Amino acid sequence: MGIRIRSIAHYVPDRILTNHDLEQMVDTSDEWIRTRTGIRERHLAAPDQATSDLATEAARRALERANLSADELDLIVIATATPDHFFPSTACLVQRNLGTRGQACFDMEAACPGFVYALQVARGTMMAMDYRYSLVVGAETLSRVTDWTDRNTCVLFGDGAGAVILERSSDTEDAFLSAFLGGDGSLADLLVQPGCGSRNPASPEVLERKDQFLKMKGRDVFKHAVLGMQESALIALEKAGLRADDLDWVVPHQANIRIIEATRERLGIPKEKVYVNIDRYGNTSAASIPIALSEMSSRGLLQKGHRVLLVAFGAGFTWGATVLRWTVS
Ligand code: UT7
Q1: How far apart are CA 18 and CA 47, in angstroms?
Q2: Would you tell me which of 6, 47, 158, 193 could form a disulfide with 167, CB atoms 3.0–4.6 Å apart?
Q3: Could you tell me if 268 and 287 lie in one domain?
Q4: pLDDT in the model for residue 173
């Protein structure tokens, strides 16, 4: 009995915001953004698109590729830090959009590593509940919690969604060779959306302070991110009984090219084995890894049997890594 990835797909909104567009909005430069982050452009949701809309489009594509109808799903999990509402869950809205009902639905909030967390949570739920098919989506509209007057943060983030269908069956070898998840709440204040939750409900004062938007101590986040990525990757490799040389691909969370480079160097992995698309999408948080995997799959870069390390970190702090045997042809 094992769980495999049956299909993968992604969706990003059409609207593109380039670094040159940002130069018109805040005191920044294309050169600064490119050299400090690796980002050239990012996709932004249209005014009438919310996280559930991006997630639904990615889900429809993944279902089509799996040749499944939404009614065949047993579970819907959406990893997101930017849900449409606190409740109902974005997963319930995706279920409604897909025109189905009855499945277990919930959102998974673990910030940027949300998709890595959600894979394990879905996997555990499938085993506990004897489920056959699950939809797991990483989806974000970070543009809605970004302060577009704050150059320290607004150059970094983008919107998008990536979806996988997981299948559990008796004649399948498990695709998951290892996983490691971690967190440290003592670092919670380094990256936070302070307002509009139960701590500081929406009020004129909250809006005055712009506390509905995310705030970040970038340099501190950077330092912990590098450590979290490196530690997670090494532990997941060790748990899988593999060396870095045994990997075909590393797919890191796309937050900053310098964080990706530092992780790559620590693992001793050649550049060609690390997938990077931050230049075109920016940081899409929980969507970043499934978007990258979907793109790689479409470009024929991932082949059945490839050993792929996923590794991420984010607000919380949370971090995690998993080693997969790729199962989509
Ligand atoms: O998924 C998790 C989410 N977050 C992250 O992964 C973010 C991790 N952190 C980072 O990626 C980096 O810390 C940043 C890209 C956010 C910033 O890069 P940095 O090399 O750490 O720059 P810094 O914050 O140390 O700032 C250096 C200078 C400062 O000016 P002064 O004080 O040296 O005069 C900033 O004010 O760069 C300035 N600066 C900018 N200049 C032009 C900060 N943002 C900008 C900007 N354009 N957008």
Answers
A1: 18
A2: 6
A3: yes
A4: 84
